[in-house]
Structure formats: C-alpha cells, structure tokens
C-alpha cells in the first residue's frame, strides 16, 4: 500500500457517481478507481454498482466513496450528494436525476462531441467545474471503451488523483486477461487526460443541485401492487435511444431491395415500412427508414443486409432526429 494522499475534506467522504448504460464500462471503471485508491493511494474506499438486467443499454449507476485511512466507511448507501459525476452517455443528461445532488463546488465530466452543450447543463451550479470529452469517439479510434477515456479525464480533473497510478491500475486490470486491449486502453486514457474541454459558464444555478429521492419511500403500506407493470418497456411510449453507444444504422434507399431480412432480425421492430399508392400489401411495401426512438443500436440489420443498404454511421448530434421515420406519427408533437 502506498502513502495516503490528502483528501480535500476532513469532515466527510469524497464521493463519486458514474452514470451510464450497460456496455460502456462504468462498473469496471468504478471498481478500478476504488481499487487503485485503496491499494495504491493508501485511502479507505468502497465501491458498488446499481443496475438491473446485465445487458447492453440498461441503466447503470456506479458509486465510489473515499476517505482517509483513519475514517472507516460504514455505509453502503447510494451516493446522493456527489463531489464528482461522470456521465458515460450524453443522452442521460436530459434526465435531471443524472446530475441530482451534485455539490456546488463539484465536477461534472460528460462525454460529448466538440461544440455540443446539452440543455441539461443549465441546471448545474455556476461554481461547478464542467468538462466535456468525446469519449465514445476516442474509444472507437483506440479500440478501447469509454471508461478508459473518462478515467483519464478524471485523473486530470481531480487534484489528488495521480495519473500514473491510475494508468498503472488500468494496465494491471487488463494486461493479464486481455493483453490485446491493454495498449488501446492506455492510449485512450492518455487522450482522456489531454483532449478534454472546460465549459465555463454552462451552469446557471446557485447552490447544490437538489437531491432526487422517490417520494414516498416504499414500505409495506406504500409499495405498489404486485404483478403490475406500471411502465412497460414494450409500449409505444418507450424510448430506447439512450441505449445506443455512438452508432446508428442508416438506410441507403437506392441500394435497398426491400427483402425484409433486416426486419426479421430486428429485436425492437423499429424499421418503418410503407405501402405505395394503396397497392396490395406486401407486394408494394417498401422500407423507408428507421424510427430511432425504438432503435437501441444493436446493428443486426447491418450484419444481415445482403446489399449493404444499411450502413453504420457515427451518431452526431441531431442526426437521428434528421433521419427519423416515425412508426407512430400520432405520437410526434
């Protein structure tokens, strides 16, 4: 164990919360950070994650709590008032719960392309440090994952984190089991340290961000009735767009032969078909595009298309809205 570093607070823990979806490495990233803090930085630390089904696209929260060697951690409660929030998918910023509880002097790190300032940032404190890094693009270029990039940015943004220590921890985590990805992870980490942008003036609020809790807390008198799905994921109101990890399937209508192979493998039935001039169906039914509200970006349609009419394209801001073909026009405001 190394010598303990000095934390900025003596009367409380230093707390971090990773907000993500499955498949981006938030759980492993939180585990790695806490392990490095305990074994290499001499701190007390605790980590755990909260998630539902272990699959790509499902919500994930990862919590890290750090304290000096003499301060025992006797709680495993979720981190409600974090000093740092790291957001692994920019679409999560639309939900106020993502940044809930961030302290006025805290730090937000989020992944996003250059020049994008999501609307959700305005609810953050004026005094918070807000950092943008295009983690998904960097990870794709380095054959890595966004967690390596974001931990690199975190190492640069938080003064008591040592970049060399975290990089060594990252290398140790993968060099034995996955040596083929170790070099890419190291490159992604170093780019995360160097390529981030500070966004002064993005926050417009005063004081800490309010904590969001369920109200009332569920107990034996307030728990919902069993056997009832209150918010079914298969309804027309469901939105899977947050599940995508940086890529969209895009239709080239000139190459499409309307064979329906893509529709056979699409798990979410998000492909949009129209019959021309009220002619008999299915003889005149043509594929016209994708309703990206229901597309989680699995890209099976691309793998199946016999004419390469479906291609994988980076999801730049506004692209899904520009290309979207609604399955349910009556839901579009």
Question: Quick recap of the structure?
Answer:
The protein has helices at 26-39, 135-141, 146-157, 163-175, 179-194, 261-265, 300-304, 319-323, and strands at residues 14-21, 44-51, 59-67, 84-87, 107-111, 129-133, 197-198, 247-251, 271-275, 285-290, 310-314. It has 333 residues and is α/β, with parallel strands linked by helices.
Task: Please explain how this structure is put together.
- The N and C termini lie far apart (58 Å).
- The chain has helices spanning 26-39, 135-141, 146-157, 163-175, 179-194, 261-265, 300-304, 319-323, and strands at residues 14-21, 44-51, 59-67, 84-87, 107-111, 129-133, 197-198, 247-251, 271-275, 285-290, 310-314.
- The protein has two domains: 14-198, 3-Layer(aba) Sandwich (Pyruvate-ferredoxin Oxidoreductase, domain 3), CATH 3.40.920; 241-331, Alpha-Beta Plaits, CATH 3.30.70.20.
- It is of the alpha/beta class and 333 residues long.
- Strand 2 (44-51) and strand 3 form a beta hairpin.
- Helix 2 (135-141) crosses helix 3, helix 3 (146-157) packs across helix 5 and helix 4 (163-175) runs antiparallel to helix 5.
- It has a seven-stranded mixed sheet with strand order 2-3-1-4-5-6-7, with helices on one face.
- It is 23% helix and 19% strand.
- The longest helix is centred in the middle third of the chain and has 16 residues, at 179-194.
């Amino acid at each position: 164990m190394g010598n303990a570093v000095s934390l900025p607070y003596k009367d409380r823990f230093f707390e971090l919360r990773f907000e993500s979806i499955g498949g981006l490495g938030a759980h492993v990233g939180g585990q790695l950070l806490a392990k490095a803090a305990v074994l290499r930085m001499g701190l007390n630390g605790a980590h755990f994650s909260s998630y539902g089904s272990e699959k790509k696209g499902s919500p994930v929260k990862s919590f890290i709590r750090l304290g000096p060697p003499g301060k025992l951690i006797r709680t495993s409660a979720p981190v409600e008032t974090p000093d740092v929030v790291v957001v692994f998918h920019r679409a999560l910023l639309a939900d106020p719960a993502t940044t809930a509880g961030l302290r006025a002097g805290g730090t937000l790190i989020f992944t996003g392309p250059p020049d994008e300032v999501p609307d959700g940032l305005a609810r953050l404190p004026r005094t918070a440090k807000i950092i943008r890094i295009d983690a998904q693009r960097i990870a794709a270029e380095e054959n890595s994952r966004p967690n390596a990039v974001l931990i690199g940015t975190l190492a640069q943004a938080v003064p008591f984190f040592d970049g060399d220590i975290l990089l060594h921890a990252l290398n140790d985590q993968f060099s034995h089991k996955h040596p083929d990805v170790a070099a890419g992870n190291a490159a992604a980490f170093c780019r995360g340290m160097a390529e981030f942008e500070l966004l002064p003036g993005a926050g417009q609020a005063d004081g800490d961000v309010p904590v969001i809790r369920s109200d009332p807390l569920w107990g034996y008198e307030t728990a919902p009735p069993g056997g009832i799905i209150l918010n079914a994921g298969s309804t027309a109101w469901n939105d899977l767009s947050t599940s995508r990890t940086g890529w969209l399937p895009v239709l080239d209508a000139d190459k499409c032969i309307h064979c329906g192979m893509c529709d056979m493998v699409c798990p979410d039935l998000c492909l949009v078909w129209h019959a021309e001039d009220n002619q008999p169906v299915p003889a005149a039914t043509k594929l016209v595009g994708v309703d990206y509200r229901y597309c989680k970006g699995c890209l099976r349609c691309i793998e199946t298309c016999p004419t390469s009419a479906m291609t994988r394209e980076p999801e730049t801001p506004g692209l899904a809205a520009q290309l979207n073909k609604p399955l349910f026009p009556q839901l579009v405001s």
